[in-house]
C-alpha cells in the first residue's frame, strides 16, 4: 500500500476522525445506494467511515474517503479497503483504473477482494480483463470459493469463448463444486450466453436442487436466443414446481411475450402476476409496458403508464415507440418534449418515429439537434437517419454520416449500417456508391443482397440484378419474398417476359407462394410489353382479390398501349377501392384523351368534380445547407419566390438560346 500512503501517517484523534466522518456523511446523505443494494442482510456496519462508503455516489467522494482512510490508517485493514474497492470497481459511477491501482497495492488480497476485481471488469463489459484476473487467481493458488467460479464463467460467457468455459467446467468438477446450486446457475448462464441452449438445459435438468435463479437463468437464456416458445414452456414447468417466480423472472417472461407478439398470452401472464402477488418493481412494470406496446395493446400501455408512480427513461421511451408504431407522431413528440430526462435511446426513438412515418425532414432536424447537444448516436440512430436521407434524397447528409461516423470508425460498418448505406445511396441515385459499400461489407445477410437487387432493378441495371441474385444461391442464402419482388421488378424494367415467368414459377422451388406484390410485378411486366390480355388473365387467376397496386399496374399498361375498354375496367375497380385517389381519374382521362374518347374524358373529369376530388399538385423538395425547401406547382409562398422565378426565367431563356444556336448550326456550311 506504499503509494497510497504518505511517508508518515499522521495520527488524528478519535474525536477528529468522528467529526470529519459526520461532516462527510451529511454531504453524502442524499445519494442513493447502487453497488450494495443487494448487500448481505447479516452485514452490520457501524463505523462512520465505512458508513460513508456505503452511501458514496461519485469518484470525487470516494477519493475524499480514501484520503481520510489513508490519514487514519484504516486503509491498511482488509475489510475497509474491500468496501472501498467494491464501490470503485462495481458502481456505475466508479473507475476501474482507480480500482486496479488500489488492488495492486494490497499486499495480501483475500478471495473477496479478488472476486470483486474480477466481477468489476465483467460487469463493465471488459470480459478479457476479468478472465485474466481469474487466471491470476489460479496461478497464485488463491483459495477460491464458489463465487470465484461464477464470475469466471461470466467472463467466459461474455468473451463467447466456449472452449475456455468448458475447461473451467472441468476445473469445477475437479474441485468438487459441480453440485453447488450457485455454480450450476453460473454454468446455465454461461451456456446460454454462448448460445449452447441444449447444454444449459442439460445442466438445469440434471440439477437436484433448482432455485429461482436456476429457472430464471434458463428462461432468460431462451428469450435472449429468441426461443420464445421454449421459454414459456419452462415458465409453465416452473409454475407447477415448488419455486415461486420473482420480479426478475417475470421481466424475462414478459420479454418472451413481447417477442411472441401474442397479447392473449401477455394478458394471461399479467393475471398470473397479480394472482401470485409478485412485487411490481419498476423493471417489471417497464417489461409489462414494453409487452403491451409490442403486442399492439397501446391502450393498456397508456393505462399502465398513467398509473406508474415512478417512471424512468425506459418507461417514457417505450410509450414513444408505441405511438410511433401506431402512427401517432404528435403524441410521440409530446411525450418526448415532456420527458424529465432523455438519453440517446430516447432521441433514437423519436428520430425513428419520424423516419418510420415518412417525415424525413423532422427526423433530420432532430438528429442535427441531437448532435448539437453533444450526444453520440447509436447504430440504430444512424439507420433511422440514413432512412430519412433516402426518403428525402438528402445524399449530402448521408455522405457526411458515412464519412464522419463510419469511415472514421466512430460506428463500425456492421451489416445493419451497411444495408442502410446501400439503401440510402441507391435511393439518392448513386448506384456506384451503393455497390462500393456492398463490396466493402465483410459480412452480408439476405437484406444486403435484397437491397442491392432492388437498387439495380430500380435503376434499370437488369444484368447486375440477375448477377446478385445468382450470388445468393452460391453463398447458401435462401431468397425470400422481397428477393423475388426485386428480381421481378428488374424483369419488368427490362421487358424480359420469359425470364419473368421463370422466376415467378420458380418461387415454389424455394417454398414461397406468390404474394400480391409479385402478381403486381408480373402484371406490370406484361402490361409494359403490351400483353394486356395475358395480364388480365393472370389477374383473374389470383387466389385473393387484387389490390390497388395490381389494378394500377394494369391501368398503366392500358394507358401505355391505348386499351381503353380494359383500362375502364381497371379504373372502375381502383375507384371502388380508393374513390379519393385523384391519380386514377387522371390516368383514365389521359388514356381516353390519347384515343380521342372525349365523352369519356368529360365523364372522368365530371366524376372528380362531383366527388370534390382535386388533382394532387406536383411538388418538389430541395435541401440546402441542412434546410429543406418545398415547392408546389405555381407556388409563390416561398420568401425568395420572386428571385427563384427570375433565375428560372433566365435559365429557360439561356436554354432557348442554346437550342437556337444548335438549330442554326445545322444550316451553316462546314
UniProtKB/TrEMBL annotation:
Q: Name one GO biological process term.
A: RNA modification
Keywords attached to this Swiss-Prot or TrEMBL record, sorted alphabetically, are: Repeat
Task: State the PPR repeat positions.
Answer: 110-144, 211-245, 281-311, 312-342, 343-377, 414-444, 445-479, 480-514
As one GO molecular function, the record gives: RNA binding
What Gene3D superfamilies does the database record attribute to this sequence? Tetratricopeptide repeat domain (1.25.40.10)
Entry keyword annotation includes Nucleotide-binding:
no
Q: Which residues form a coiled coil?
A: none
Q: Which domain of life is it from?
A: Eukaryota
Name of the protein in question? Uncharacterized protein
